[in-house]
Amino acid sequence: MKKITTAIFLMFCSIIYSQNKINAFTGINYSYFTNGVAGQILAEESFGLHIGASYEIELNNRIAFRPAIVYDQVGDRTQTDYKYYSYEIDQLDLKLSYINVPMNFKFWNKIYLIAGPQIGFLVSKQSTIGSDQIIDSDIDFGFNLGTGFTINRLFFEFVIYQGFTSIGKYEYSSTSNTKNIHNGYGQFTIGYRIK
Question: pTM of the full predicted structure?
Answer without folding.
Answer: 0.83
